[in-house]
Amino acid sequence: MLRHEVIFSTLKGSLVIVMIGIILGVFLNLGLIKASINGELPKKIKEKQLADLKNKAIQIPFIELKEAKRLFDEKAAIFLDSRSLGDFRDSHIKEALVLPLISLVQDRTLAGKVIPDKNRLYIVYCSGEGCDLSVELAKELIALDYTNVKVLGEGYPGWAEAKYPVEPSR
Amino acid sequence: MQENKRYIFWALRLLIGGIFFYAGLEKILDPFDFSVAIYNYRLFPDPLLGVMAATIPWIEAMAGVFLLSGFNTKGAAALTSFLLLIFTGLILISAIRGLDIDCGCFGSLERKVGWLAILEDTSLFVISMSVLLFEKNALNLQELINKMLPRRIEE
């Protein structure tokens, strides 16, 4: 066989497999595809991720998005961003303080410098339902004797999606 | 020596076929879980998540079946090489972006996005390419049938 014939027959062989895969996949998962097209799938994914996150940290209290906003309005809580400095600089919940989990793990005295009052209410967040930095940071803070730490499971994306105040403002 | 090489590439074909079949099957059993893995990459539009989660596992599994059976091995090896190239690229992008997510490579088996996953996928790509370029269709069903057919005619 000539070189281009070999390439053509190989590509044809690949295409046959792709077609079989597509036909079987689409035929057997019509519900999933439909849910994705009408926008239900991302919602279901977020719900599952939040449930998984809560299961992963049964001893850590979570706070609802609306309750967090109420406390924000009343200035009754301090918001703590557990993401990287880069993410924080890009955008964060308005007036939040940054305490990246990685920095705290490297230097545990950092908590005392950023948030000296151990009895205030702290609401920790990260990049949303699929991220566990907030849960891990909350665990660290509780271990350091902070008495009132809660996790905002929806994180920064949920806050921004609800059009709550962020800075730099968008 | 030539015979030994045949056996090596035969073993590599079965290895890559087995891995793809297993990886596909894991995701076929729980396509929603795979859609979560795709969603976590934050690279694809939401309406595409379902189609991707529905079809990619079947394409992987079918490529695995073809490699294991020995039918259309070149086509299957070209496809697995192409898929591995895409997967490695996606993991690389996510590692650079600092995403702390499961790569979704093997369904329920947790494997984080990172340099180890990149190394694994690159190794699999090299194996897959070697099957594509050097495997001579040794010891497969197609060869077996080809050998049997003339005999049947003679009988």
Describe the structure.
The complex is a heterodimer of chains A (170) and B (155). Chain A contains nine helices and six strands; from the N terminus they run H-H-H-H-E-H-E-E-H-H-E-H-E-H-E. Chain A has 170 residues and is of the alpha/beta class. Chain B is mainly α and 155 residues long. Chain B contains six helices and no strands. In chain B, helix 1 runs antiparallel to helix 3, helix 1 packs across helix 5 and helix 4 runs antiparallel to helix 5. At the A-B interface, helix 1, helix 2 and helix 3 of A face helix 2, helix 3 and helix 4 of B.
Entry summary:
The complex is a heterodimer of chains A (170) and B (155). Chain A is α/β, with parallel strands linked by helices and 170 residues long.
> How do the helices and strands follow one another from N- to C-terminus of chain B?
HHHHHH
Count of helix runs of chain B: 6
Q: What proportion of the residues of chain B form beta strands (DSSP E)?
A: under 5%
Tell me the number of helical segments of chain A per DSSP (H or I, 4 or more residues long).
9
Q: What low-confidence regions of chain A span 5 or more consecutive residues with pLDDT below 50? A: none
Give me some keywords for this one.
heterodimer, A: 170 residues, alpha/beta, Oxidized Rhodanese, domain 1, 2 domains, 4-stranded parallel beta sheet, 56% helix, elongated, B: 155 residues, mainly alpha, 6 helices, 77% helix, globular
Topology:
The complex is a heterodimer of chains A (170) and B (155).
Chain A: H1 3-28, H2 30-37, H3 40-56, H4 65-73, E1 78-81, H5 85-90, E2 92-93, E3 97-98, H6 101-106, H7 110-114, E4 121-125, H8 133-143, E5 148-151, H9 155-161, E6 166-167
Parallel strand pairs in A: 1-3, 1-4, 4-5
Antiparallel strand pairs in A: 2-6
Chain B: H1 2-29, H2 31-40, H3 46-69, H4 73-96, H5 115-134, H6 141-154
Helix pairs in contact in B: 1-3, 1-5, 2-3, 3-4, 4-5
